Every structure is written in C-alpha cells, then in structure tokens.
From TrEMBL, chain A:
It is a multi-pass membrane protein. This is Carbohydrate ABC transporter permease. It comes from Kribbella soli. Its main location: membrane. InterPro entries: MetI-like, MetI-like_sf. The chain crosses the membrane at residues 12-30, 66-93, 105-126, 132-154, 189-206, 241-265. One of its GO terms (cellular component) is plasma membrane. CDD domains: TM_PBP2. PANTHER family: ABC TRANSPORTER PERMEASE PROTEIN MG189-RELATED, ABC TRANSPORTER PERMEASE PROTEIN MG189-RELATED-RELATED. Residues 70-260 form the ABC transmembrane type-1 domain. Belongs to the binding-protein-dependent transport system permease family.
From TrEMBL, chain B:
Pfam families: BPD_transp_1. Keywords: Cell membrane, Membrane, Transmembrane, Transmembrane helix, Transport. Its main location: membrane. Residues 1-24 are annotated as: Disordered. The keyword Membrane applies. PROSITE patterns: ABC_TM1. This is Sugar ABC transporter permease. One of its GO terms (biological process) is transmembrane transport. It comes from Kribbella soli. Residues 89-306 form the ABC transmembrane type-1 domain. It is a multi-pass membrane protein. Belongs to the binding-protein-dependent transport system permease family. GO terms for cellular component: plasma membrane. The lineage of its organism: Bacteria, Bacillati, Actinomycetota, Actinomycetes, Propionibacteriales. The chain crosses the membrane at residues 33-59, 93-114, 126-147, 231-249, 285-310.
Amino acid sequence: MSVERIRTAVGHIVLMFGVLVSLFPFYWMVVMASNTTPDIFSYPPKLLIGSHLFENMGKVLDNIDFFGSMLLTLIASLGVTVLVLFFDSLAAFAFAKYEFPGRNVLFGVLLATFMIPAQLSLVPQFVTLAEFGWIGSLKALIIPGAANAFGIFWMRQYAKGAIPDELISAAKVDGAGFFRQYLTVGLPVLRPGLAFLGIFTFINVWNDYLWPLIVMTDPNRLTLQVALDQLNGIYGTDYSMVMAGALMSVIPLIGVFLIGARSFIADLAAGAMKF
Amino acid sequence: MAVTSKTAPAAVSRPSTTAEKPPNKYKQAFPQYAAVSPFFILFAIFGAFPVLFSIWISFHSWDGIGQMKWVGLEQYHYLLSDATFWKTIGNTLLIWVLSTVPMLLLALVIANALHNATRLRTFYRIAYFIPNVTSVVAITLVFGSIFSNNFGLLNAFLRSIGVGEVQWLTSPWGIKIAIATIVTWRWVGYNAIIYLAGLQAISADVYEAAKVDGASPRQTFWRITVPMMRPVILFTAVTSTIGGLQIFTESRVLFGDTSSIGGPGDAGLTIVSYLYQSAFIKNQFGYGAAVGWALFVLIVLFSIINWRLIGGNDDERLTRRAARRVERRIAAQNAKREAADVR
C-alpha cells in the first residue's frame, strides 16, 4: 500500500513539474509585459510581476492598429469557422449516411489530399489569388480554407456512430428531402462534434502565420500574428512593449480554448485514435 | 445504409407501379453530390490546380510579374547543386531530431503518469494542452527573450550558477536548440494526450493476464504496452515528421528583425524558410516551386520510412507467412495420403 502511495506521489511530482514548465512561459510573458525594458535588461533580472502593464499595453495601441488587426483576425477566423462547420458537416452527413454512386472513390480522393503539404502549392496559390485580384482582401484568408478534408473526415467518423439510421428513415417517411434531413436530423445530433471542429478551426485560423504573411500585403490590414511579428521587427528593442502585445494577442484565444477545453481535448484524442 | 435506395422525389414523380424504367441513380443522388461538392470545388481551385500549376512554374524562370521563361529542368539542376538548399535540409532534419525525439519520449512519460493519476486529471490535461493552442508568434517572442544572448533569463541563470553563458541565438547549435525547444514545448502535451488515449484503450484484462503470468513491469511495458500502442505511436511519428519538415514560423519570428531570415550563418534557415525566401523575398517563383517539390518528396520519403519502422506490417506478414507454411504442409500431407490411397 505504501509503495503504491509513494508511486502516486512521485507521479504527481513529475506531472506538477511538467505543468510548471508548460505554464512558465506565460508567467514570464506577464513579467516582461508588466516591467519596463531597462528592468528586464538588468542583472539579476526581475522575476516578479511589475506595475507597468497598462503603460506597455498603451504603447502597443499607439504603435500598431491592434484592435483593427484583432477585428480582421476575428472576422477571418469566424468566417472560416462558420463555412467549415456548414460545408464539412453537410459533406460528412452525406458520406456517412447515404449510399451514392462513386461515394467511396470520392472519399478516397478526399483522404489522398491529406498527403499534399500546404507549402507545395504556396507559390501557385499566391499566383492564382493574384489573378483573382484577392491579394490583400479578406477573401484570400477565408475562401480557400472554407472546406477541408480533415473536418469532413473527422465529422464523418462522428456522424457514423452518432446518427441512427431510423431517424433518417422516419424523416423520409415524413417527406423530408435530403437538406431537410440534414437540418432536422443531422445537425442536432452533430452539435458536440461541431463544437470541437469549430474551436479547432477557429484556433488554427487565428494562429496562422505563413499564409496571411504572404497574402495580406496591405500594411494597414494585417492579421494579429503578422502585426505582432511586425511590432517585434520594428520595435524589437522595446521588449516590454512587444511582450504586452504578445500577451494581448494570446488572451482571447486562451479564453476560447478554456470554454470548451475539457471536451475539446477528449474529442481530439478520440479523433487521433480513429486514424 | 439502405435508406438511400428509396428517396422521396422519385416516388412522388412516378407511381410505384411503373417499374418499366428504373430511376437514374446518378440523378437521384443529386443532393448528396451537391452536399460533398463544396470541398471538391474548393480543392480543385485552391489545391489540385495549384499543384499542377506548380510543376509548370518550376520549369520556368519567373519573377511573378514579367514574362515566364521556359528553362526545363534547370531549376532542379540548380537545386541539386545549391549548397544553401542542402544546408536547409540539414538544418531542418537536425531541428526535427532535436525536437521530435525528446518530445515523443517526454510525451510517453507524461502520458504514463497521467494514466496512473486519479486526481487533478482535468487540470493536468488542460495545463499540458494550453501550449499547443497558443500562437507560435507570441510564444516564439517569449522564448526569443529567454534565449537572448545578453539579457536572456537562461544565460542569467547559467551565469548565476557559475556556468558560462551560451551564445544561443548566434551559434549554429544554439539556434537549432532554441528552435527545437519551442517546438518541443508546444507539442509535448498534445502528443501526451494522444498517448494517454492509446493507453486507456488497452484493456485491463491484458495487464491482468500478464500479471498472472508473472511478467515484470519492464516486460509488460515492452511486450504489451509498446506493441499495442504501435498505431498511436505511428500516428504521432507521422504527424510530427510532417510538421517537423514544415517548420517555418519559429525561425522566421526568432530572426525577424535581422537581415537574414535564417539567423546568423543561415543556421536556422529551414526548407520552408528557403521556399519563402526564394519566392516571396527574392521573387524567384520558379525556384520556389521547385523547392516545394523537393519538400514534398522528402515528406513522402520520411512517411514511408516511419511506416516501415513503426508500422505493424511485419507482424502481419510473419503471421501470414506462417499460415501459408502450415497450409502448404497440410496440402503436402494430403497429397501424400491421396497418393497412398491410390496405391
């Protein structure tokens, strides 16, 4: 018994140490954002939270259009998320619950697209969007990502188990067409799955860096990540201000994550097990 | 599954007695085709076409604006003799090894501890997962300051315990270790959560049986846990290989305010950084496209290697071979017996 107890205690010590390592950079971000730059550069360095947080945040707002960038990022993230949820769940519903000629071939093609790294088509995608005249506009951030293979694959796995065939048959007897069946039978049952895919998509778009770096060429219309990088590029010597910007960019996202964290993590792990 | 064969519209348009002309099954499935079409249309425009187009671009010399000039395989010829390109492959692979190996080992340790812990489970999971949802740009800025040569926390610590300072962000190894640390920090928790799901999927009966047979904890780990975790380990290995070969943001942000995007001596220049630099800074679109194809070949190559190393095919192949051998022996015996009967 006591051996068990020691083992449990050791396990918790290991885990707690890991938690400290995991969370320390956030603490350090706050420390740097709340002290002045000379304080950070002093030796020994300040290790405690200071009192200059709002002053530093104010400097961020003076130097870049922080809220403009945040709004742009928010619109792009929400736009992609809404479209992905609709298109992916609709396709997943059809793939999971209906027989139609060529279904397996189409699904196979969809899975094959996983193999293509996004960077392979970076150059031609840019050229294509330039041809469309979309460079610098929100369309470039939203439309190409409006439906994705991962989401369809994941939602299909979910729909297969979650939607009973009897419900669909019953809806058919009532004279409901395919789209109506999707709305009345599919969507309500898929809601927990949509919550996961929604958070996952939102976080990915919000954090994306390479794509917006390339397509958002107007310096007055940058996403948060690119704006933050630029803040560092121009005012890199003002550490405390850059850190205040980093902190401000991270907080909303962690908020979104914490809302659904528990089931989000469980769903993600379950999804990985299905591959 | 059989629900689709009797969809409503067909039944309405013609009475069920007229069986002379079967309804067109493609026409009948129109709603389903419409439902799956958005992905395929978007993929055709923003996925398939660009991939084909990138082959075309890579056969040209092009600055993105002016006339495209056909150069055949010259970009690829140049690629193979380009020392910087080979350097980026070396950099990427080193960073990948420096991050993936500790990352997956630590994830296994954490998953094991999480599996045994009965309290604080939700807290641990969330705490370990938060790094993964945090923006790479913001966190790279934080790590950049921790690793800073002159004012960084890490060097301050090393100085205080009497160890000399390390030029983290200017020496070739320091740069790679710094980037690998950021990658590891972001992905350990993610992989641990996936390993944990794998551990929980192993039924307790198997362990019980091993205990009854008197297996030591080490034997149990290597003979039961690891083999049964194979698919999960393969998943994490493949995803971290694909992710590792595409590292870009960390090195780009770390050296954002320096003139070279790969840091001093290009020691942090990755394959994707090089692609970005070629196409979007130097406006060599043809060369950038060729680098993209090299990246694709590398990803396919390493995915196959992962598959071969970790994939479960060996066991199956052995079992199949053994089964065939038994079949052959039985067949031989039968043949002998038949021959004897004839006599």
